[in-house]
Every structure is written in C-alpha cells, then in structure tokens.
C-alpha cells in the first residue's frame, strides 16, 4: 500500500538536506515595476543616470534622445576625413539607386533624389547608428507601389498616386515614432529572420523579373508583381522588345558583376563596386546622348527638374476614400523598413562592438519619415547595400549622411537635368545586380538543414511573394510564425527523467538512453510557463505519463507510487495552471499516487504558497530543492510504509 | 588575462565527469509525427488499438466516435433505476429553465421546451460524459439575443428573429463539429478560467438586473444589456410597475432561496431544491389561474402550442444580409457553450474519476446543435446547474438525458397548454436564484490574492460585460489573456544563479538570498524557448547581465571571465535564436569572456550541433551536463592560465 494522502507524515521533508525557500516574496509594486521595465525597457537606457545631479541627468536624457549631442562635441577633423570619403562614396550610390527605386515605385525619378536629401540630415541628428546610410529601399518601394496601385493607377492619376506615397510616408513616420515612444519595439521582434530571408528573396526575385521590362526596353507592363502575371505580360507585349536595350543592358550587367567580383577577390577595392553604378549611369547617359538613344530603342529617364525639394505638406491626403489605403501601405512598409533598418544597424554595430538602441532608432526613422513626407520624400530607411558601402568606406559617425546629403543637394541644384539621358536599361541592370545578393540560397539550405519549420516559414514568404502578392507572402509567413509561437505555449514539452551518473543527476531518458528510471517513482520535467493556454494539455499529458508508467510498471510487478514534478523550467504559473495542478493531484491521489515538487522558481513558489497549494494540498514536506532529495524522500517513505505493512502482517 | 578564445584548450571538457550526449537525434519523420500527435491528439485516443485484429480495431474506432456503443450493451435494469430518477428530476428542472431562458432570449417559450427534447437524445448517443444534462443556458441565450437584436429587433420581425436563432444554432453546430473533427480543441484553451469567472459573473449580474422587468411586472424594456441602460429603462417605465408582481416575486424568491439553503444544510435533500423551480411554476400557474393574474398585474406566459418540434430546416436563413450576424452569433455563443459544457463535464468527471475527451465532446455538441437547428431548437450545451442536479440525483449513464427527453415529449404532447398560466414573475425568480450562484465573489478575492494579472483579466471581463456589451467584455478579456501569453514568450525570465548547499547546487540568487556567486563566473539560467520573438530581448538581457556583473566585479577587483548559460529550461530554439547565441558569443568574446553551456535539452542540443554552434563556435569541450561541472572546468582553466601568467612573469 502506498502512503495514504494527508497522513501528516513529516518524514520525507526531514530527510532532505536543503529546503526550498518558501517564504521568498517579491513585493507587488516591485514585481510590477520589474515586469514593466523588462517589457518596455529591456535595454534599460537610463541606467547610471540616477546617481548624478539633476542638470547632468537632464543633459544625459537629452543626449539619449539626440545622439548627435553625444558625438558632435567630440568630433574632430581626423574623423571628418573618413566621413567625407564615405559620404561621397554613398552619394555616388544614392543617385542611381534613388532614381532606380523611384522608377520601381512608378514615381517621378526626381523623388528618389529628394528622398536622399532631407531624411539623411535628420537621421544624422537623431540616429544612434554610426554606420547606417539612409535612403530608399527596393522592397518597400515595390510594396508601397503594389498597395497604392490597386487603389489609384499611376497612369490615370499620377498626382494623386504621388500624394498617397507622401501620405503613406507620413503614416509610416507617425507609426514608427509611436512604436519608439511607447517602447513597442517588440512588435518588430515578430518578424523572424526566416520570414525576412524568405520575403527578401521573393521580393528580389520579382524585382529582377520586373527589370525585364527595362532590359527589353518595353513601354507597357503589368502593375501586378507575381511571376505568372509578369511573364505573361512580357510575352504579351513581345512586339515592344528592343534588341538595342537588351545588348546595352547585358553589357552593363557584365560590368557591374565584374566590379562585384573584384570586391570579393580584393576587399580593398570595394570602392570600385561602390561607384560602379554611378559610372554606369554616367557612361549610359553619355552614350544615350551621343546616339540619341530615345529614338533608337533605348528609352531614357526624361526630364529632371533642377532645384531642391518643394514642400509637400499641403499634398498629404486624408480624405475618407484613400486614407485607409495610405495607412495600410504606411503601416506595412513601415514595419518592413524598421525590420530592415534595425537589422542592418545591429549587424554592422556588432562588427564594431557598438550598441544600437532599437527604440531610439525607431524614433529616428519616424522623425525622418514625417519630415520627409512634408518635403516631397517617400519612405526611407537604412538599406543594407548602402550601409554596407558606408561601413566599408570607413565612416566614423552619422556625419557621412550629412556629406551624402550635401552631395545630393549639389546634384539637385546644378546637375539634375544632366541625368535626363540616363537609359532606363542602366537603372534596370543596377537594380538586378543589387537584388541578386538578396536571394540567399545558402541561407535557405542552412535553414533546411537546421530547422525544417523555419524553412517552411521562409518558403511560405518566398512562394507567397513570388506567386501571389507581397502582402500575402509577408502576412502568411508572420501568421505561421505566430501560430508556431502560440503552439510552443499551448503545447509545452514534457519529458521523463532517469538517473545518470550514478543517481545524482536526472536527465531526459530520450536524450540519455542509458538513464535508468527509479522504481515506483516517475520523474517528469515540465518546461515553459504553466497557464490557461496549456493547462488542459498538461493535465492530460501528466496523467497519460502516469498511466503509461503504471501499465509499464505493472509488467515489472512494481506499483507507481510517486510522481515527482521537476518545475525548474517553469518560469511562471497562473490561476488556471494552479487549478490544473490541483486536479492532477486529485486524480493521482485517488490511485494512491503522491505528488512531489522539486525546485520551483521564485515566481512559481510564491503563487503556489499564496494559493495554498503547497500547504493545504501536497504538504510543505513534499517540496524539494533537487530531484535527488525528492527521490531519497520517496524511497524513505516507501521503506517505512513497507516495514509497517510487514509489521502488520 | 583570460584564456584566449579558440585556443584549442581541451582541458575543461576532460575535467567534467559526465558529458552531454551530443549525438542524440530524433529522426525527422518521427519528430514531426510526435509533434503533430502532441498538438492534435494530446489525449492519444486510439492508444492500445494498434495491437488488435482489424475487426476489433474498427469496432474500437466506432465505439470511440459513438460512445453509446460502449455503455449500451452493458446497460442493466439496476443502472436504469438511477437514471430514471435522475432523468425525471432534471426534466422537472428543464421545463421551468427552458421556458425562462427562451423568454430571456425573447423567443416564444415553447422553443425552450423543444430545445430540451431533441438535443438530449443525440447527446445520449454521441456524448462521452455520464453526468452532463443537456439544455439551454442563460449566458449564451442572452449573448445570442444581444447580437441578433441589433440586426433584427424581435418586436418588428419575430419570425426572422427566430429564424436567425435557428441559423446561428446551425453555424454553432458546424463550427463545433469542425473544431472536434480537426482536433482544434486548443482554441477553447484560450478562454482562461479567469476570463470565464469574470464573464459569467458579469453576465449573471446583468441577467439578474434584467429580471427586474419580470419582478416588477413591466411590459416595456430596453434591448440593451448594460447596467446603465437597464437601470434607466426601469425608472423610465416606472408607471408600469405592478406591486402584485413584486409581492409574488419576493415570495417565490424566498421559497427558492430556502430550498437552496436546505440543500447546503442537508445535502441529501438536494431533490427539494431540484424540483423547487417546477413547484414554483405549478404553484404560480394555479395561483395565476385562480386569481386571473393577467388581469390583476401578474403577466403570464401565454399560449403554448401542443405537439412536438416542427421541422425548421426550411427556415434557416442564409441570405447575404443576415448570414454574417448569424455566423458571428453562432461562433461566439458556440465558443462560450463549448467552454461551459466541457468545463462542466470535466469537473464532474473528475469527482467520479472518469475521463472526458474534449474533442469528442465538441463533435457531440456539434451534432446535437446541427440536428437542433433542423428541429426548432436553439443553442444547447451542458449547463452547470442541470448537470450538477443530474450528478447529485445519481445518474449512471447518458440514459438520464433520454429519460428527460421522454418526459419533455410527454409534456409537449399533453401538458404544454397548462403552462400558459405560468406567471412571468415565477420565471424571473427562478432565473435570479440560478444566477446568484454564478457571481463568485470568493473566487474574485482568491484571484486578487494569488495573481493580480489574472484578477485584471477577470475584472476586464466583468466590467466589460456589465457596463458595455457581452461581446466587448469577452473579447477584451481574451485579448488581454493572449497579449499576456505572447509577453511570456517575448520576455522570458532569466536569472542569475549562485551556489547553495556547499557549492553543488545552483539556484536563483533572488530566491535564495544566501546563495553565493562564483568569482570570475556568471551563471545565468534561461527559461522558455529561445526564438525569433524573444531573441533580440535575450541578447540585450544577457549582455546587460554580463555588463552589470563586470561593473560589480571590477569593484571587487575580479574580472568576469566566464558566462555559464544554463539551458535546462530552454525547451526549443529556432534559427533566429541560434543567431542570437552567435552574436552574444561574438560580443562577449571581444571582451575576453568565454561562454559555457550546461544541460541543453534534446531538441536544443540537436539544433545547436546541426548549426555548427557547438563545434565551430564555442567548442564541444565547453558544453557540460551540470552547472557544477561547468564551474569546475572554469576554475581549472582559470588556474591554468594564471599559473601560465605567473610563469611568464
């Protein structure tokens, strides 16, 4: 007979060497403060400020919000040398990329240049990354276009189309600032690396396909982005194909690929590949001007107006009819831009061992997008290609963005009309080469090898983008990621422990096949928080473990008499979870099986004590610090009850 | 100087007594199978079938889907005695409750009787609980009414209003069956106990308030359910108050409360409180007939048609205009009905030590609701009050539902017209007394004491229902619960471990204030899965722990040289999570700090090995089975490097 429940047997507890500290409490206010701080201030930005005098504290806080105050006073001519070089280099990249991505979004090319002028200035003041170079990005440009085009076709109403881009940029800015201010950076955390890999790969694929329009010198094209529509469109308008464009395009492509190859072979020559796009634009422009390309099958960019950004604040459109589209476009592209910008900033900072504050970055991105929407810019962020060039060119501070901005200013004031002759095919080949690097086949293989589910998430994004729309690909992949996260929560893993290393250490029997189980005792390890989502599952699962163990041990002629629950991995428990433990206790108790707990964490101990579970239901003497103590106690109690039985016989 | 990274030092690994099993693998197919089985078949319904011959297996599977085949062949006259008694008792409760709840939903009272005839028969065949008594429930009735009333006011178009109830029941049935068939019972898991407690309490409160209409004998009333509207409506129509109704109502209330009190004092007399509502209906009816109540301020139910349920299949409305309302009503009330029915079934089964299969119950509920919608019934489930009476009356099998059904059949065929004289005030007092028990003040206090956040979730549901609408209360509370679940995932707890009990055991220093930290070593315990949602947070947190420790140890004059990550609580890791560990390694490595891992679980070990993290980045010799081994190895390596330093000096 097993020991009867609630027989007041205080033996086992006494046998244990060390006890669980049942009286530890976190004061309520303190625990709420900690919880809020961990949730919203995981980086604890103001640490170390508390001890300083008020003026220093205010200055510290101001420096936190305006990082330029941190680096500007210590800025030296020595640093400027590096920043000047880096700034000029990225400016040479910003011109072709700005024009290209604006064309990709069906916007007037000049908007791309405008967008490389104002936002970098603001980022230099508010941004916290020393490596990020600000500009427009391909994926977000295409995403914005694909959403806004369904509402307002750019051919029918180019003015309204442009206005909606400004409005979307405004909403993006407001949204990003709000995320930063309310410390909600964790929303970006829901875009997993797998999602971004797949989404970027898919986007790069469809962008490359779309460049067939430019490469073939076509005039008509589908506004849709999916593979099938694009290919159909290309062959439908095959009478528009121009061999002149194609030949020129292939030459440009080869030049660009060569420069890229050069960088791989000789990293010191990175600047060749950095200015190659600019060279292509110049060479292409001169060539098109000389041969009168536009009359001979080589379409050119067309007129670019001289002068700096006009104000666009009066063009923001908040009418009922279009505001939803603008908000949707702003929200989605904003999330995407944040994810890219923050990831780029973080990975570059890591190399230099600097710190990036995600929430501060959001505020900086938000401010530059709001200001951008007032000054004829569309969405900007920190694109990977430009930032990497900035980094390799040896930038020291955000001053390189200022230099780039000044270069663009000069272009806008004096040189813009010269870019009129840039052949579209040059832009297309620049985009194609920029995009090729984003299809990371090696990363796909790595994912497949390491984690099949991550691979699925990645492929859903890729296939969704390539065959459906960008929004579908992105949301299906994020949805799948969130379902997976919730499944982790709803179906936490449990495992049976056996003793390894002579009985002192208890480990998963699946992991350590030589682990031996303890007679009459089932040791279960529970992981993850126990709460309402998984309480029902855990109850069934624990009872099933017990049932399986009973069936197994009946064959061996040994009763199951104790279930030891190892709670070390249980980080928290809620009311439903405690209710579950009570029910498990009742069910097992009816079969004469006792529950012992080992090593509950602070938060869990506190709640189990407060709810009376430990005192009234299982008894304080059945809570142990280690599994070993619990097993010792179980053996001791078993022996006592057996010798009692023998005595009675 | 700390040991240089990657110095190929194989010492520490050799010092450890036991090793982590790095070669354990789960075959992919096997792990997918296990994962799917745990997700959708946590109760493993067909266990034990595999080994039997095909015919027995088919019979076993059929018995699984039709539990009646399990108990019917072994049914005896002895059991029937008990079921007959229980069935008659619950029939006596079903009549007044059926009429009352139909009135609560503004439906013709006879619908309530219809709904107690067909569904119980079906449940007896497909249901797996021996204790559940099927019938309509107050909360879901009011919820349905509150949703459908906003679309079709019952006064304006009673026929369409009724049709939408049938249609909603149909959708409820389809939805419940689908959940059961696709094993999606876990959706119900997202309704936490706290949500249900608050929601039920709030619903009971507004239902009691609504009964003031019946108690005061009023004719006009607001269709809204919130406290403010109800109270305003009561005083607005105060000229309709009838003292006769009120006096009669108070008498009935006292009688019912007395019978309830009696049950508490003498549990054997439970049947008194069980048939009390029926007695009230009979006494009230006779009284109203004798004094011609309807002419003297005591409104009565009115005509009830003799005869069994007419077919309603042709009345289901799937027109574009109303189908959304019906679907919404069906979905929400279906979830609610499932949550109540399954919770009731489970808690009663627990007392008798029986098992309830949630997914099977869903299919049974679904079938009975679909069939119900074809035969003039509205939503039914297993209400708590009726099931508890069934249980106390000693039911043995679902046969008691058949007995109840036959009783209701007899009433429908012969006695229905007699209930015409039932005073509405009698129904109101029955509802009030049934609802009082659902406001669980003691549970609220318990929640407040044990878990403040659970208390908030509960109060949001309560206040939402009482002051706004039932849908708002329910969804706000569920939303808050889900946010909390996601926060658990996004912000997992980490803690610093110190040695207790003489150095062999390592525990949270906040929990065990006497735990001593190890010089030069920081031991961190990570909990919960590491993946994309929390990877960013964990990186920041681990680095911040290290930074704090460095600052702390500088004061003591001791460098931080090792960070030991205890992964015992990490149940899984994804690709982003591994990337995070790589970044943490890089950041720490740059400061000359080494990472050691202890006790990774099977799933985690597998992925860390496959991704090359263990071999290429931290080195196999820095993975240990226990924290103690890791500390020993760190000390050993430290001593070696110190004696080397000394030697060099």
From TrEMBL, chains A, B:
<feature type="transmembrane region" description="Helical">
    <location>
        <begin position="160"/>
        <end position="184"/>
    </location>
</feature>
<dbReference type="Pfam" id="PF01740">
    <property type="entry name" value="STAS"/>
</dbReference>
<feature type="transmembrane region" description="Helical">
    <location>
        <begin position="329"/>
        <end position="350"/>
    </location>
</feature>
<keyword id="KW-0472">Membrane</keyword>
<dbReference type="InterPro" id="IPR018045">
    <property type="entry name" value="S04_transporter_CS"/>
</dbReference>
<keyword id="KW-0812">Transmembrane</keyword>
<feature type="transmembrane region" description="Helical">
    <location>
        <begin position="122"/>
        <end position="148"/>
    </location>
</feature>
<feature type="transmembrane region" description="Helical">
    <location>
        <begin position="362"/>
        <end position="381"/>
    </location>
</feature>
<dbReference type="GO" id="GO:0055085">
    <property type="term" value="P:transmembrane transport"/>
</dbReference>
<keyword id="KW-0813">Transport</keyword>
<feature type="transmembrane region" description="Helical">
    <location>
        <begin position="190"/>
        <end position="209"/>
    </location>
</feature>
<dbReference type="Pfam" id="PF00916">
    <property type="entry name" value="Sulfate_transp"/>
</dbReference>
<dbReference type="InterPro" id="IPR002645">
    <property type="entry name" value="STAS_dom"/>
</dbReference>
<dbReference type="GO" id="GO:0005886">
    <property type="term" value="C:plasma membrane"/>
</dbReference>
<protein>
    <submittedName>
        <fullName>Putative sulfate transporter 3.5</fullName>
    </submittedName>
</protein>
<dbReference type="InterPro" id="IPR011547">
    <property type="entry name" value="SLC26A/SulP_dom"/>
</dbReference>
<dbReference type="InterPro" id="IPR036513">
    <property type="entry name" value="STAS_dom_sf"/>
</dbReference>
<feature type="transmembrane region" description="Helical">
    <location>
        <begin position="270"/>
        <end position="291"/>
    </location>
</feature>
<feature type="transmembrane region" description="Helical">
    <location>
        <begin position="425"/>
        <end position="441"/>
    </location>
</feature>
<feature type="transmembrane region" description="Helical">
    <location>
        <begin position="241"/>
        <end position="258"/>
    </location>
</feature>
<feature type="domain" description="STAS">
    <location>
        <begin position="511"/>
        <end position="634"/>
    </location>
</feature>
<feature type="transmembrane region" description="Helical">
    <location>
        <begin position="453"/>
        <end position="474"/>
    </location>
</feature>
<dbReference type="GO" id="GO:0008271">
    <property type="term" value="F:secondary active sulfate transmembrane transporter activity"/>
</dbReference>
<keyword id="KW-1133">Transmembrane helix</keyword>
<dbReference type="InterPro" id="IPR001902">
    <property type="entry name" value="SLC26A/SulP_fam"/>
</dbReference>
<feature type="transmembrane region" description="Helical">
    <location>
        <begin position="402"/>
        <end position="419"/>
    </location>
</feature>
<dbReference type="GO" id="GO:0022857">
    <property type="term" value="F:transmembrane transporter activity"/>
</dbReference>
């Amino acid at each position: 007979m097993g020991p009867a429940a609630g027989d007041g047997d205080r033996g086992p507890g006494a046998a244990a060497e060390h006890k669980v500290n049942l009286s530890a409490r976190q004061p309520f206010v303190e625990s709420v403060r900690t919880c809020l701080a961990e949730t919203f201030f995981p980086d604890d930005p103001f640490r170390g400020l508390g001890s300083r005098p008020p003026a220093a504290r205010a200055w510290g806080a101001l420096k936190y919000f305006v990082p330029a105050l941190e680096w500007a006073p210590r800025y030296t001519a020595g640093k400027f040398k590096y920043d000047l070089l880096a700034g000029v280099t990225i400016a040479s990249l910003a011109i072709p990329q700005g024009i290209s991505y604006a064309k990709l979004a069906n916007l007037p090319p000049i908007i791309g240049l405008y967008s490389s002028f104002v936002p970098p200035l603001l980022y230099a003041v508010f941004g916290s990354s020393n490596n990020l170079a600000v500009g427009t990005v391909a994926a977000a440009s295409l995403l914005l276009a694909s959403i806004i085009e369904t509402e307002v076709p750019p051919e029918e109403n180019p003015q309204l189309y442009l206005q909606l881009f400004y409005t979307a940029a405004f909403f993006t800015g407001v949204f990003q600032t709000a995320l930063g201010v309310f410390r909600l950076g964790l929303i970006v955390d829901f875009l997993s690396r797998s999602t971004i890999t797949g989404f970027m790969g898919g986007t790069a694929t469809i962008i490359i396909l779309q460049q067939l329009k430019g490469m073939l010198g076509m005039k008509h094209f589908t506004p849709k982005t999916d593979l099938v529509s694009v290919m159909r469109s290309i062959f439908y308008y095959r009478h528009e194909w121009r061999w002149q464009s194609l030949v020129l395009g292939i030459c440009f492509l080869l030049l660009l690929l060569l420069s890229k190859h050069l960088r791989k072979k000789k990293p010191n020559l990175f600047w060749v590949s950095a200015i190659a796009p600019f060279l292509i634009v110049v060479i292409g422009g001169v060539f098109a001007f000389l041969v009168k390309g536009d009359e001979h099958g080589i379409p050119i960019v067309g007129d670019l107006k001289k002068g700096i950004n006009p104000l666009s604040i009066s063009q923001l459109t908040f009418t009922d009819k279009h505001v939803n589209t603008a908000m949707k476009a702003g929200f989605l592209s904003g999330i995407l831009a944040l994810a890219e910008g923050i990831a780029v900033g973080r990975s570059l900072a890591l190399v230099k061992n600097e710190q990036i504050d995600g929430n501060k970055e959001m505020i900086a991105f938000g401010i530059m997008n709001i200001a951008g929407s007032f000054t004829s810019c569309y969405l900007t962020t920190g694109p990977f290609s430009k930032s990497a060039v900035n980094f390799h060119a040896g930038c020291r501070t955000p001053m390189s963005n200022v230099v780039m901005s000044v270069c663009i200013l000069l272009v806008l004031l004096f040189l813009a009309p010269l870019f009129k002759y840039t052949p579209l095919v040059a832009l297309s080949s620049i985009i194609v080469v920029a995009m090729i690097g984003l299809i990371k086949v090696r990363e796909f293989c790595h994912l497949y090898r390491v984690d099949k589910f991550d691979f699925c998430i990645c492929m859903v994004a890729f296939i969704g983008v390539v065959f459906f729309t960008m929004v579908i690909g992105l949301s299906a992949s994020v949805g799948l990621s969130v379902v997976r996260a919730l499944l982790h929560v709803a179906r936490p893993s449990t495992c049976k422990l056996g003793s390894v290393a002579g009985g002192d250490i208890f480990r998963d029997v699946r992991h350590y096949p030589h682990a031996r189980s303890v007679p009459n005792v089932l040791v279960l390890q529970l992981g993850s928080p126990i709460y309402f989502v998984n309480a029902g599952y855990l109850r069934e699962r624990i009872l099933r473990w017990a049932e399986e163990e009973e069936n197994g041990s009946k064959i061996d002629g040994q009763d199951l008499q104790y279930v030891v629950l190892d709670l070390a991995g249980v980080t928290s428990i809620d009311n439903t979870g405690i209710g579950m433990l009570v029910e498990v206790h009742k069910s097992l108790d009816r079969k004469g099986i006792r529950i012992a707990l080992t090593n509950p964490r602070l938060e869990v101990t506190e709640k189990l004590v407060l709810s009376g579970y430990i005192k009234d239901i299982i008894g304080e003497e059945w809570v142990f610090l280690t599994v070993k103590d619990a097993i010792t106690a179980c053996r001791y109690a078993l022996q006592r009850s057996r010798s009692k039985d023998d005595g009675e016989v």
